[in-house]
Amino acid sequence: MVAQQLESIQLDSIEDEFKFDIQTLGQFVDVPKNPALLEEIGGVQGLAAGLKSSTTQGLPNEYNSTEANRIRIIILDALKDHILILLIIAAVISIVLGAIPYTSDDPETGWIDGVAILVAVIIVVVVTSTNDFKNQARFRELNEKTSDKQIKAIRSGEQCQISIFDVRVGDVLLLDTGDILCADGVFIEGHSITCDESSITGESDPIKKGHYTEGFDPMFISGSMVLEGFGRIMVTAVGTNSFNGKTMMSLRVESEDTPLQEKLGKLAANIGKFGLSAAVLLLLIIIPKYFIEKKVNGEPISSKAGGEITNMVIGAITIIVVAVPEGLPLAVTMALAYGMMKMFKENNLVRHLASCETMGSATTICSDKTGTLTQNVMTVVTGYIGTLFKDCQQFASTLPKDIAAILCDGIAINSNAYEGVSTKGKIEFIGSKTECAMLNFGKLFGSDYQEARRRLEIVELYPFSSARKRMGVLVKQDSSSYRFFQKGASEIVLGQCDRYIDQNGQVQRLTPEVKAIFDQTIIDFATDALRTIGMAYRDYPIDCGLDFKKEAPESNLIFIGVVGIKDPLRPEVPDAVIQCQRAGITVRMVTGDNIITAQNIAKNCGILTEGGLCMEGPKFRNLSKEEMDAILPKLQVLARSSPTDKQLLVGRLKDLGEVVAVTGDGTNDGPALKLANVGFSMGISGTEVAIAASDVVLLDDNFASIVRAVLWGRNIYDAICKFLQFQLTVNVVAVTIAFVGAISGGGHSPLTAVQLLWVNLIMDTLAALALATEPPTQELLDRPPNGKDAPLITRSMWKNILGQSVLQLIILFVLLYKGDVIYENFVDFKIQQTHQYTILFNTFVFLQLFNEINSRVLGAKVNPFKGILNNPIFLVVLVATVIIQVIFVTFGGKATSTEPLVIQEWVACIVTGSVALPWGLMLRMIPISEPPIKRSKPSKEEAIYTPPIDNSNPHSTNQISITTSNESNHNNSDDSPLVSKDNTDIPMQVGSSTVSPTNQSTDRPVPVGRGWQIVRQTHQKLRVINAFKSYETPGDALVDVVRGPTRPSLYLPSSN
């Protein structure tokens, strides 16, 4: 799949049309890099000319396409099944022996049985393969949607968003913090860009990007990540010709089963062994019995014996075919494919199959606030700039022009957002929702943000990060002075100021009394659930002697004011939170907002309940293990939290046996998303790193979509249980009847090979199609989640399986030995053996059809017909099975070993089969207790606590030091896993270091608090090794790369 996706974005044929060939362009980023080559061709301008592009205009808009697979490969794979091959060989032998007069009583028709078996095998293979092909097509479509993403580029001089599959050599791409490069490229312009290229170079130090003449690295390598800064690059290689593409093409792809598929695979193997044992035992009994009876009766062993023994072998092989539950993996695949497509339509893009199953077992959800619980439609509604204002439009008309100019320049230049055409085709601001709200606020003053950006020359840029919670920019105001603009968390920006602008537009000293007014304003805004943004500025002479490149000049600023941005709560969130709580799932809000804002929003959406706790991140990370475990059950809101606080929360919850789902949208949320059992990233506001690290993408950034994911996760699990309950019943009954009937019938089973193959088709493909496509109901949220270690087959399922098997065996054995006597009461002719076996077969099929209806419900539910009209696939399968059964029995003749039945016999068969319905109801009414759901704790903890030592008192090892928010944030910038020099667990990167697949040897623990460290042990979704170094353990050569995140696994090629 990855290879096909890469091949779909090949380089154009450039040898004849362009100045540079593929090899020359590849030399830019090959290790070691070759920046001197860039200078030889005339720098980036020479490169652009040679590629018929422009550093300012980019390329014109054009698009490529992809291709799909064929069904032929799937059919050939299905025919490789060893049991089917044996059956085909036996059928061919039966045809030959049946057509030769020497070995057949009736050569004219003796071949029909063998041909019928071959036709049945072909039908089974074609139906199964077609079904599998459709499932793969669904996965393929989702893979393309998952791998695809929109990136910012310049085409025809305009900023636009294009698919990564449409990126071409010569394109000008816009980079921002958190982006993962989809192509190789060369630096055009930018500010403070640093990239993590440890996956390629092995060096953990971030690489600063810029012009080669200024001593910076101008080459960008596909697969590397932008740690900070923004700028433009020109693409030099894409797809299989890019550095990352070449690596991916050298890897081979193999499939990897989900946990549920692995469980069912083991179950299927055990059932298959049971069928194989029954078949071997049957042959060991009936073949000697055949020859003994011949000897006892004095009958000679004729040339016909070969054909009869062949039929016995065919019967035994057919028992294996029926016993082996190929439908189990098929049902899982079908349920997952169907569920994933439905989830996609409900704004959940599933990236990892296992997450579908895991969400059904989720016990806690740690949710972001912005965009998930709120609408992410930010609007400035109030503020304090010189004076408090409520009407933004009126305020804009009264603010002095000189102050308005400072305000608007700061808003325009200190922002990465821009105006363009959105994915919905509307002209609007694109970028951070907070920055879009600020730019819209600036519009009220008649400001043109593009004019300000053209007029002001950026000298230095200090990007926003979750650790700093602010961003700044230094611009050249005129020939003699610089102006520094700052914006960010209001309390932090206010703390950096010693002056402010009053209502007359005059700069005044920021006295404690005035600062108290601003502090109270910030608290009032936060109490109203508003996000507060502070703004400040300061002028510096050009010859002031400060080193602006080293650090931002953030002291003694002039406070412009604070604005309150409203982000309305999503109307569906309160109901969704109530649904989660009813389903036994604890919802926690983890946000970077101050605790007052967080409390109000949590109360409004129902997360913060009576007795619930709110805590700030700096205090949380300094708790001891005992204190943290004591407060976690009641902790509902974590405010002013950093990404490492979220990691610590997730790790500790998992250590306590919780199944944790986490939402995240920022680059630094990547480790927490990877650490969680299920990570949800934001499809609208999420960075590429967050999306790459997640299991599910919320396409609408909506918390209610998480509830739908939980619903579908539980529904998929239930669908598998329903199918399992049905198929095991059929297995037990079919094998038992065929086994006992063959022994008592002189080696000939009452159910022939063709009949059993039809039954196999009913219980495998058709039943999987019917039961795996059951739509979810809200009742699924009225029960607690299933435990991670819950058994596949519950006690109530065993009760139904065994109860139905007993009923069916009693009915079928009565028909086997006394069926002719009973049915002669309904007809006026004598019933022969073939006719009796037809009645037996027909009754057997209708017993399965009515039991299939029974299997729609689990546990003690009474009505199996509830909601049946909501599943048209089930009804179509049911009706189609009845129609085919009528044709099979009535017109099959010798090919199917059946005789036509009269209407009385059909009615009797249907009525007998319908007994399964009241019997099933009676079984479900029998009370049976299930074992309590246990939350098993992992054998090794992921959040490790080492009590810090107080140096002033060597005997004290457990004293807690509560740090301030500012101090804590400063420390976290060094500890962040995305900028730590020692960390190599950056999501979706190739190489970087060798990681043992065992838990004993993991990456260096990541500090996340005072005494706390995260060690990834029990939830390694991906294990990363260096793809460019020799690898001596081929059995564990599991590799991951940045593209194709839905790909199950990648393996290094053999070193031989």
UniProtKB/TrEMBL annotation:
The chain crosses the membrane at residues 83-104, 110-130, 274-292, 312-338, 723-743, 755-773, 801-817, 837-853, 873-891, 903-926. The keyword Coiled coil does not apply. Its main location: membrane. It is a multi-pass membrane protein. Residues 147-249 form the P-type ATPase A domain. InterPro entries: ATPase_P-typ_cation-transptr_C (IPR006068), ATPase_P-typ_cyto_dom_N (IPR023299), ATPase_P-typ_P_site (IPR018303), ATPase_P-typ_TM_dom_sf (IPR023298), ATPase_P-typ_transduc_dom_A_sf (IPR008250), ATPase_P-type_domA (IPR059000), HAD-like_sf (IPR036412), HAD_sf (IPR023214). It is found in: Membrane; Vacuole membrane. Keywords: ATP-binding, Calcium, Calcium transport, Ion transport, Magnesium, Membrane, Metal-binding, Nucleotide-binding, Translocase, Transmembrane, Transmembrane helix, Transport, Vacuole. PANTHER family: CALCIUM-TRANSPORTING ATPASE (PTHR24093:SF369), CATION TRANSPORTING ATPASE (PTHR24093). This is Calcium-transporting ATPase. It comes from Heterostelium pallidum (strain ATCC 26659 / Pp 5 / PN500).
